[in-house]
Each structure stands twice: as structure tokens, then as C-alpha cells.
Amino acid sequence: MHRPLRLSWLLLVPALLATLSALPGRTGPSAAPTAGRNLLANPGFEEGLAGHAWMPAAWDTFESGLSTVFFGRDSFLVHSGHAAVSVANLSTLVPMFHNWSQMLVVGPDLWDKDLTFSVWTRSNGLDGRSYILLQAYRDTIQEMAITWKVPRDTARVRLGYVPTSQPIVLTGYRRLYFSDRETDWVRREVRAHISPGTDIVAVRAGIFGTGQVLFDDASLTASPSVAPPAAPEHRNLLADPGFEGDGNAWDYSLPPFPGLKVERDTTVFHGGHASMHLYGGRAPFQARTGLVQVFDGRQFWGKRLRVSAWLRCDSLRAGLAYAKLFATTSAGELRGPAAKQYGATMPWTPVSYELDIPPGTDIVSAWFMYDAPAMAGDLWFDDCALEVLGTADYIKKKEPPPGVIPIPGPTH
To answer: Which residue blocks in 90-207 are alpha helix, DSSP H?
Structure first.
């Protein structure tokens, strides 16, 4: 059996992208797209993998190493045809985004197009959140691993990259969460822009929580790009900024540290009736953990942004908490200023961070985070905001736009 992909939760964390260890998928470069053509192989999971009892051809599963998760393919509950796939999970002690996935190599034929990923889902006893996800990124190693049909590490060595310096940059991202406990078949859809320079697209459908979710009749189609209008100034652009809703507007970034939690808290809050509580985790190293909303960067070109929140800490001895904006272009991550960091024990305190967004920015991410594990202590965020302040400072000062941290090159 082909080994499952190992594309991890770190995909949203710009400084840690180089630790990914994905293996090649079975899908090659896309042909020139035609209107409505499904770019996915085996989209209805009808074709089985040769020599395997239940694995569908062209799809991979997230390899967590945990015995509490089960992936399956059968004909008992289907949306159409004769087969569907499912993922069931029994424990959230170790936070994991268990998912089915398919990865494609793409080229100029899809650049400056929009891709729409849709899939039919059915929830069965879901406690937590399920999701579908469309990711686009520039990654020479993964592109060549798929092209050469070799493991990622083999392609990395052939190309001359070291393990800690790999050419990965996120160029497109859209995730949709849903938390309905029991549903019949429901069609879910996300859409993202494919920026020039993108060479990898991945689609994922999975669960973060317990229970079972089934998937069938997936589709990935290209269409002419629809550019977002310029974002309005002095308006909070975040969805559910005070965490009064169900939390599905927010993406959680959680490394797989046992006991690490990001949860809505209705007992501690700054305004309204809830906040977001981050705590726990055991691990020998620290990694960025927190809440994020991801935006198409084109709506912010030439603008100055500010992200802000109210933050509270209680005995956060080893953790460093902060709010920050990250932005990427196909050439790399923007060189933003360092964020002011907080910790120890402190009452509700306002925090903020500002960043100019130059033309060519693909992705802007508003982060509210800390460096986990803290080993002890608690952190809360509430009343978060992302707003456009006006014209970028570099334009007002007639200076060059901020540069980027370039994608690493090979060592030879």
C-alpha cells in the first residue's frame, strides 16, 4: 500500500513550514482546465487501490500513528454510486486533524484561476468540528517528488535541500468548518485563488474532534478568477471576533502535543459572554499555537493593517503570547516587525500589531497566539479585530515596499 501523506498542522505557521515531511501523492500535473471539468482522480471513491482491501485509488489518509482513529471505505452509506469514505475518531487527547486528501501538481494553466473544492458530507455523532480544506502552495521538493514518483525526502536530497530549510510558501488557503452532530448528506464548498508560482494544490476532508464523518462525490474545478473588492477601512473584518458564535469562523493551529487545548470559555471573558481559552500541552519543544483567520491578500494591496485583541494571562510562566499579522507572496514571507510579547499573570490588556501589505501579497493571516507548550498557566483572547487603517506607510513616505524572507535555495 502507498504510504499516507504526512502533511501536518504546521501548514499555516510560516516559520515552521520547513518541518513538513509530506510524501508524494499519485496525481500528476493537471491538464489544461476546461469549464466544469473535475480535476480530481477517483472523485467518487469508486475505484479501489489495487491489492488493498478498502483503500480508494488516488487518495491518501493522514498518518497520525494513533489507534483511536479509523479510516474506511464501504458501500453501506453513500451519496451516489457504490462507495464512500469515512473517518472516525475516539479521542482528542492528542490534537490531530485526521483527513482524507489528494494532492496535485499544477502549472501556469491554473495560475490566476479560482479553484472550487466541493464534497458531500454526512455527520454521525460528531462532537467537535469537521472540515473541508483547499490549499495552494509553492513547494519545489513536493512538485519533483510527485513528478519523479519518489518519497519527499528522496527528492529533497536530489535537489540539494537540507531538512530544516525547504522551499515551501503558502499561496492560497480556504477551510470550511462545520459542527452539526447528525446530518443527512450535505454539499460543502470552498473557493480559493491560485496565484502565479503555485505548483501544488491539496484538497482535504476530515475531522477535528470525535465521532464519524462520511465523504462522497468530491469535485475540484477551475473558473475565471474573481478578484475581491478592496477591503473597507476602519471596519472589523474578522468573523465572530468576540467568540459569541460556534467558533467555526476560526481556524485553530495546534501542534500534536498531548493535552493541548484551544476552547471557547463562557466563564472568563472581556466583553460579551465568551472568550477563547488556550492551555495545556506537553512537548520537548515550543511551537506556535493559537487562533487564525486567513484572507485573500489581493484586497489589501497598498494598505496598512492592524490586528488587535484583549489578552489575559494567568501564571503563563513559559509561554509568550502575542497578536501578529503574517503575509506571504509567491517569493516568500513578508519581513514584518517583531511583535510585542506577553506572559506571566496579567489582567485583560489590549495588544496590537501593524503591517504594510505590498502588491503581490497572496495570503494575509490574522493570528492570536502563544508559543506552546507553556507547561503551566492559561491564556485568553477576546474581542479580536482586523482593520484597514488606510494607505500603507511606505507609500506615504515614498519608500520601497517591505521585502520578503526569500524561499530557501539548495545547498549546492
So the answer is: 140-148, 152-159
* 362 is a domain residue: yes
For 90-141, what is each residue's pLDDT tens digit? 999 999 999 999 999 999 999 999 999 999 999 999 999 999 999 999 999 9
Match 482546465 to its residue by C-alpha cell: 33
Angle, alpha carbons 112-113-119 (nearest 5°): 145
**Same domain for 202 and 71:** yes
Cα atoms in the Cβ-side hemisphere of radius 13 Å centred on 227: 13
Residues 246-288: tens digit of each pLDDT: 999 999 999 999 999 999 999 999 999 999 999 988 888 888 8
Residue 200 and residue 274 in one domain: no
Give the DSSP letter of residue 23. Answer: P
> Structural domain tally of the chain?
2
Q: Map grid coordinates 520537548 to a residue.
A: 284
Q: 377, 317 in Cβ contact below 8 A?
A: yes
Angle among Cα 294, 86, 42 to the nearest 5 degrees reads 85
Asked if residues 116 and 151 have their Cβ atoms less than 8 Å apart, the reply is no
One-letter amino acid for residue 2 of the chain = H
Contact status, residue 236 vs residue 306, Cβ threshold 8 Å: no
Task: Between 225 and 27, name the one with better pLDDT.
Answer: 225
Domain that holds residue 394: 251-406
Which residues, in sequence order, are CB contacts of 303 under 8 Å at separation 6+? 230, 231, 233, 356, 357, 388, 389, 390, 391, 392
Residue 328's CATH number:
2.60.120.260
Closest to 298 (Cα-Cα) out of 367, 240, 384, 226: 226
Query: What type of residue is 178?
Result: F
- How many residues does the structure list for the chain? 412
